[in-house]
């Protein structure tokens, strides 16, 4: 990516970060809450999960909830030795109305000319920073098991 294009992109992202973006609500197929029990986790993953959740709470990416919705969470160890928090949202995703293609008219990245600069954003790297409409937040709730200190 050229320097001028990169600088323009960085300025735009910075400007958007400070602006208040409207958060449209998600369209749901049903109103019945989804509750899936938390999986059993080994001690090391449970400790890492507590640390990751505390970090995200401190950063304001997560908030406490008494939601009737629940999906399992777990964590995996990356090659670097750090842990990554993962949430199984398959059942929640199945309750959402489809939004269609993200870019109408372009069904495949293979349609891009080979010499075009491409920027790839992996949603797993920014999921916790994507704002949700306040009415939709409880639907993404999860519970963290207590660490057994016996």
Automatic annotation (TrEMBL):
Top EC category: hydrolase
One Pfam family matching this protein: RVT_1
The family database entries (InterPro entries) matched by this protein are listed as: DNA/RNA_pol_sf (IPR043502), Rev_trsase/Diguanyl_cyclase (IPR043128), RT_dom (IPR000477)
EC number(s)?
Answer: 3.1.26.4
PROSITE patterns linked = RT_POL
Which GO molecular function annotation, any one, does this entry have?
RNA stem-loop binding
Q: Does the keyword Manganese apply?
A: no
Q: In what residue span(s) does the Reverse transcriptase domain sit?
A: 57-150
Q: Which UniProt keywords apply?
A: Endonuclease, Hydrolase, Nuclease, Nucleotidyltransferase, RNA-directed DNA polymerase, Transferase
Q: Which domain of life is it from?
A: Eukaryota
* Similarity comment text for this entry: Belongs to the beta type-B retroviral polymerase family. HERV class-II K(HML-2) pol subfamily.
Tell me the protein's name. ribonuclease H
């Amino acid at each position: 990516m050229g320097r001028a294009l990169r600088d323009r992109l960085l300025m735009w992202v910075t400007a958007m970060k400070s602006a208040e973006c409207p958060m449209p609500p998600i369209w749901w197929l049903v109103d019945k809450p989804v509750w899936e029990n938390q999986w059993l986790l080994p001690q090391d993953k449970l400790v890492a999960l507590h640390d990751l959740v505390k970090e995200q709470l401190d950063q304001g990416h997560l908030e406490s909830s008494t939601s009737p919705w629940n999906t399992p969470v777990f964590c995996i160890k990356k090659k670097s030795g750090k842990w990554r928090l993962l949430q199984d949202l398959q059942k929640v995703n199945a309750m959402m109305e489809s939004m269609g293609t993200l870019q109408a008219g372009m069904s495949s990245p293979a349609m891009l000319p080979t010499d075009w600069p491409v920027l790839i954003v992996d949603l797993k790297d920014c999921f916790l920073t994507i704002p949700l409409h306040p009415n939709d937040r409880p639907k993404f709730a999860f519970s963290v098991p207590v660490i057994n200190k016996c």
